[in-house]
């Protein structure tokens, strides 16, 4: 599990009255919390919504066998709250801490596309460039633009659907994958549709963009992330590990996964008998903590904490990483995943619209699932990190919590649909998504 350390007081969001008091406590449910707001008439510094959310989160975790979760909410209007629930190690009294590190999966895509857009802003490339200009040998490469890769509209095959690839990861979870190996797997398959024709979540797209970044900047993508995102935003607990590094900085929980890469190619939903066993506790998930994230690379290998994800998400949505022109382009690029149901969710240049209010991304890798999104109108920012990939029903564990938290802030119709990055789990999504991580409403591809 690694050494755990206590966490400092949550900093109040811009626009909040400076907190007259802050507290960190452990309640009877085992959660550890910190809050930041002005005391009410009873002297409490906890936002009113915390009392509503705490039992919801606790019950959902129990009902879906989610071992642990860390939640961070910042609201200029209603106050800030951060809490850790559950255990970091199955079978042990090992409480999660609010400063724990998690693999953040496809949230990494927002970093990759942000750097790509910064390079466009600097005139070092154009989002309208065909990928062939920067990386020859891509099927349809003379017609697929960098923007279409970033928007998941390229038509390329996602290597994560390949059976032999999944079997290889199952056989050796610590195998180090090089980006070029992943592309070779993808390019051995036919294109899925013509560029721009439709949305289809595909990790191959973001792997290509990572290689473009390295070629244009003449530096490792980890260094580009550090110079352009991590250091400017003060993200001291966020990292992009080398492909040979499968460790997670301390403190961190153990991460768990039901099923295998092969068994979850088409759905994360366990067979009925296995679901029953998992919920009864007789089927335990696999410890995937140190499985290599190299196969996700710039599509999903980053590591962070809820504090850093909150800072990053707010900067992402508020336009602190791009100039006004590029930020507008990014927000305007979001198109409905399902044109017949535009309010459900949208996807644009490395950015997801969840429902009608929250913008960000989510991510799932073996062992972990995270959600980070912010409302540009109200400033409400919600980050959830869990140490279970998908729950037995197939839904992403963090999304199970988020979907039941949002109505507290937005009302009963806050969650109009399902995850555009979700493969078909029978939960409302009909178009398979690539098995690698995520985007809104049911479960993220791995």
TrEMBL record:
Occurrences of domain Beta-lactamase-related (ranges):
55-390
Q: Pfam families, alphabetically?
A: Beta-lactamase
Q: Supply the SUPFAM superfamilies for this chain.
A: beta-lactamase/transpeptidase-like (SSF56601)
Q: Where is this region: Disordered?
A: 23-47, 416-446
Low complexity: compositionally biased ranges: 31-41, 425-446
- So which domain of life are we looking at? Bacteria
PANTHER family listed in its UniProt record? D-ALANYL-D-ALANINE CARBOXYPEPTIDASE, D-ALANYL-D-ALANINE-CARBOXYPEPTIDASE/ENDOPEPTIDASE AMPH
Protein name as it appears in the record: Beta-lactamase family protein
Which lineage is the organism of this entry classified under, starting from the top rank?
Answer: Bacteria, Bacillati, Actinomycetota, Actinomycetes, Mycobacteriales
């Amino acid at each position: 599990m690694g050494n755990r350390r206590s966490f400092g007081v949550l900093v109040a969001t811009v626009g909040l009255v400076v907190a007259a008091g802050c507290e960190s406590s452990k309640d009877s449910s085992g959660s550890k919390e910190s809050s930041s707001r002005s005391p009410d008439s009873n002297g409490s510094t906890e936002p009113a919504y915390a009392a509503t959310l705490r039992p919801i989160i606790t019950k959902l975790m129990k009902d879906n066998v989610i071992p642990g979760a860390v939640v961070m909410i910042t609201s200029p209007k209603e106050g800030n709250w951060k809490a850790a629930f559950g255990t970091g190690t199955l079978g042990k009294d090992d409480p999660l801490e609010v400063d724990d590190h998690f693999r953040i999966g496809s949230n990494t895509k927002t970093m990759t596309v942000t750097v790509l857009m910064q390079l466009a802003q600097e005139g070092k490339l154009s989002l309208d460039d065909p990928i062939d200009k920067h990386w020859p040998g891509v099927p349809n490469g003379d017609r697929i633009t960098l923007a279409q890769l970033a928007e998941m509209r390229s038509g390329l095959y996602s290597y994560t659907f390949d059976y032999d690839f999944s079997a290889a990861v199952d056989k050796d979870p610590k195998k180090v994958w090089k980006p070029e190996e992943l592309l070779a797997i993808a390019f051995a398959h036919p294109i899925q549709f013509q560029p721009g024709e439709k949305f289809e979540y595909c990790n191959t797209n973001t792997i290509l963009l990572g290689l473009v970044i390295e070629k244009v900047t003449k530096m490792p993508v980890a260094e580009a992330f550090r110079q352009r995102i991590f250091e400017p935003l003060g993200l001291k607990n966020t990292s992009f590990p080398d492909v040979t590094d499968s460790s997670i900085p301390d403190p961190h929980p153990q991460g768990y996964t039901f099923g295998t890469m092969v068994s979850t190619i088409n759905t994360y939903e366990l067979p009925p008998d296995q679901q029953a066993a998992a919920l009864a506790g007789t089927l335990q998930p696999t410890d995937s903590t140190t499985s290599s994230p190299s196969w996700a690379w710039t599509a999903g290998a980053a590591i962070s904490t809820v504090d850093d994800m909150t800072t990053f998400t707010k900067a992402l949505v508020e336009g602190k990483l791009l100039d006004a022109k590029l930020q507008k382009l990014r927000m305007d690029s979001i198109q409905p995943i399902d044109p017949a149901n535009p309010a459900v969710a949208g996807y644009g240049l490395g950015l997801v619209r969840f429902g009608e209010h929250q913008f960000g991304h989510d991510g799932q890798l073996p062992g972990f699932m995270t959600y980070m999104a912010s409302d540009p109108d109200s400033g409400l920012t919600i980050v959830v990190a869990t140490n279970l990939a998908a729950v037995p029903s197939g839904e992403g564990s963090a999304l199970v919590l988020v979907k039941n938290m949002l109505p507290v802030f937005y009302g009963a119709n806050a969650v109009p649909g399902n995850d555009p990055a979700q493969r078909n789990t029978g939960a409302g999504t009909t178009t398979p998504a690539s098995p690698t991580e995520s985007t809104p409403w049911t479960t993220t591809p791995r």
